[in-house]
Structure to design on (71 residues):
């Protein structure tokens, strides 16, 4: 197992284009279907990453970022 850390630097070519694809993939889905879609996408990408330490770091970052939105 590699001891990698989460890459926090911008790393997606054409991030605006990717965001548009992400939004379009959810078009015409109900709120419940969109939630399921995002959950499935997260699990698919987590499987691709595969590194538990990186995934743990990503979970913490996402949680902290979400909680700080309410401050």
């Amino acid at each position: 197992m590699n001891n990698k850390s989460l890459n926090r630097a911008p790393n997606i070519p054409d991030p605006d284009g990717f965001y548009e694809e992400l939004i379009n993939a959810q078009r015409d889905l109900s709120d419940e279907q969109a939630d399921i879609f995002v959950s499935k996408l997260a699990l698919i990408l987590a499987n691709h990453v595969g590194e538990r330490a990186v995934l743990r770091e990503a979970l913490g970052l996402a949680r902290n970022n979400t909680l700080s939105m309410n401050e």
